[in-house]
Amino acid sequence: MTAQRRPLVAANWKMNGSLASNADWTAAFVARAASLHCDVVVCAPFPYLCTLGRSVAPAELGAQDLSERTAGAFTGDVAGEMLADVGCRWVIVGHSERRQLHGETDAVVAAKAARALQAGLRPIVCVGETLAEREAGRTQEVVRTQLAAVLGAIGEAALARGALAYEPVWAIGTGRNATPRQAQEVHAALRAQVVERDRASAAALRILYGGSVKPANAAELFSQPDIDGGLIGGASLSAADFLAICMAVGT
Ligand code: PGA
C-alpha cells in the first residue's frame, strides 16, 4: 500500500444473508464506519441490493456478477444497467467461483468487464491460480493470461477506474492465506504488466488481495507495497471482523 492509492476494502458476501441479518450487519457497520481511512464496497446477493441501497453508506454498493449481455431474453441473467439502477456502483467480475462453477472463460470475464463499464459500474476483476497451477510453477503465466484478456478488452485506464483482485484459488475459503511475500510477488508482477502498457494507469490501479483475509492477518498483507486493500469473503459476514479488517489499512 502506498500513499498514492487510497486503500479499498470490499466485502463479498457470496450467497449469504437475509433481510434480518443484513439489517443487523448494516447497523453495526454504519455505527463505526465514519472512522475508516479507506474506500469500502459491500457486494451483496442480487435480491438484497435494492433494500440495502444507500443504507451501507459510507460504503458503496456492489454486485457479485452481471451478464455480459444487454437487456433481452436471457432468463435468470441480470444486466449491468439494472444493477446501476438499484444503486450499485461496483461489480465483481471473474470471481474464481464463477470461473469454476459456471465455466466463465477469460473471454467471458473480459466481456463482463466491458459491459460493467458501459453500464457505469466499476469492475473488480478477479484473477488467480489454482493449487495445481501454483505447484506446477505456472502462477505468473496464469494470472498474466487472465489479466491480458481484460486489458485487451477494456484497456488499462478503464481497469484503473475499477480494481484488480488477486485471489489465489487455493486460499479462498480455506483458512490458508497467501503469505504477504507470496501475494506481494504476484501483485508486483500484475502491476508490472500494466506498466508495460501505461505507467500512470499502473500507478493508479488498486490491486486487492483476496483469500482467507481475517483481522489477524490483514495488517501484514496490507503493509505490502503493491497490496492496496482486500476482497473479503468469509470474514466479511461479521460486521465486527470486517470493520477490523478495514481498520487494518491504517491511517
Ligand atoms: P474468503 O473469500 O475471504 O472467504 O477466502 C474471498 C473471496 O472469495 O473473495
Ligands in the model, by name, code or SMILES, are: 2-phosphoglycolic acid
- What about the largest sheet? 8 strands, parallel, barrel
Q: SS-based structural class?
A: alpha/beta
- Average residue pLDDT: 96
Largest sheet: spatial strand order: 1-2-3-4-5-6-7-8
Return residue spans where pLDDT drops below 50 for at least 5 consecutive residues: none
Number of helices: 12
Helix content: 40-55%
Q: What's the gyration radius in Å?
A: 17 Å
Query: What is the succession of H and E elements?
Result: EHEHEHEHHEHHHEHHEHEH
CA distance, first residue to last residue: 11 Å
The dominant shape is: globular
Total E-strand runs: 8
Strand content: 15-25%
Please give a structural write-up.
The protein has twelve helices and eight strands. The chain has helices at residues 19-33, 46-52, 80-85, 96-101, 106-118, 131-135, 139-154, 156-161, 180-195, 199-204, 215-222, 239-247, and strands at 8-12, 39-43, 60-63, 88-93, 122-127, 163-166, 207-210, 229-232. Strands 1-2-3-4-5-6-7-8 form an eight-stranded parallel beta barrel, surrounded by six helices. Helix 1 (19-33) packs parallel to helix 12 and helix 11 packs parallel to helix 12. It is α/β, with parallel strands linked by helices and 251 residues long. The longest helix has 16 residues, at 139-154. The model has no long low-confidence stretch (mean pLDDT 96). 47% of the residues are buried. Strand 2, helix 2 (46-52) and strand 3 (60-63) form a beta-alpha-beta unit. Bound molecules: 2-phosphoglycolic acid. Residues 12, 167, 172-173, 210-213, 231-235 line the site of 2-phosphoglycolic acid. 2-phosphoglycolic acid binds next to strand 8.
